[in-house]
Amino acid sequence: MIVSLFRRSTQNANRIIVDRLFDQIVAAARQPAIYAQWGVPDTPLGRYESLGLHMIVFLRRTRGAGPGVEALAQDVLDEFFKDVDHSIRELGIGDAGVPKRMKKLARMFYGRMGPYWEAIDAGDADALAAALERNIAPDAKEEPEFDARSLAGYTLAAAEALAAQDDASLLSARIAFPEAGAPA
């Protein structure tokens, strides 16, 4: 009985940390400048792209950081996919259609991770902007206002800001993305 009390306490503490980190990532992804200034569509898919981008930057920061941080990152990633599942259901997709859409969205997410990480690792704003444009506004006619270069610059700044944050901050549920649209 006592052992289960301690286990539950540890699980609750981890849940609080995961929820706080995920909430901060969501808040960064929902910054108004991303939509109003840079033209990311304020649609379910556009919001998914922004959240996915911020998750990818977060996961890049946590890779190779050690078992504690990597385990935490996996928990945050699991929360991301639970949130995506919940959002699909809120859009009215029935139980039979959810797995198919989740597979598609997971493929999209992991398909973006490699090119985004590669461009971020190289500090290549042009390659990152090209990847963002391919994914967020593949048809420039539909999204003529999309500013991939500004979003790429912000993403590189976010990756740099997260790299400067120590593991202890992450483990205590503190992460700070830069302000979107702020002068560089």
From TrEMBL:
Q: Which residues form the Ubiquinol-cytochrome c chaperone domain?
A: 37-177
Pfam families in the record: Ubiq_cyt_C_chap
Q: Which family does it belong to?
A: Belongs to the UPF0174 family. Belongs to the CBP3 family.
Spell out the protein name for this chain: Ubiquinol-cytochrome C chaperone
Source organism per UniProt:
Roseitalea porphyridii
